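Batch job 17 of 40 flagged for manual review because the log was empty.
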Amino acid sequence: MNLDDEDLFRDAMGDVTPLKNCANTQWLRAPSPKAPRVPEQSEEQENFLTRGFLDIIPLTTALEYKAEGIQQGVLDKLRLGKYPIDASLNLLRQPVETCRQSLFSFMQQANKHGLRNLLIIHGKGRDDESHANIVRSYLARWLREFPEVQMYCMARPQDGGAGALYVGLRKTDKARLENRERHAKHSR
């Protein structure tokens, strides 16, 4: 940049104020610079998450799930926050149906982008019948309905504690192939 361009830039940016600190916000990975693809009819899935009657899980019961075949050590590492969070979803103070739609979209996007570790913030109420605990109980049901969810557990206090869940997703076929290729090179 020559001197004239630098002066023009400073004049244009003189009244701009910096954005507030957004360090605590988690974002999905930046989309590819390619033109967005128009989804075909077959790619769009209908929201299969169940509605209706729900057994409310008491606040004293910690939410935790591990799919068959997942080692306890992997769940323990997730619980300790050893895996970096790829994206997060905030469901605080939203109606149950909005939470249902948001979770479904979020999980579709996470799967599409090959994300593995998620944080879902649902909040915690003061009693079992509070709205936050109803959303929490629905989450326990809904997350098990996704075939890509391998495990989930309560988050560490700095990530939301009993008001949030860490969710571990299975690797996509593409990630599995890349991993196999990477380790095949090292084994020779």
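Reviewer: the log was empty due to a logging misconfiguration, but the result itself is present. Residues 2 and 8 are 10 Å apart (CA to CA). Unflagging and moving on to job 18.
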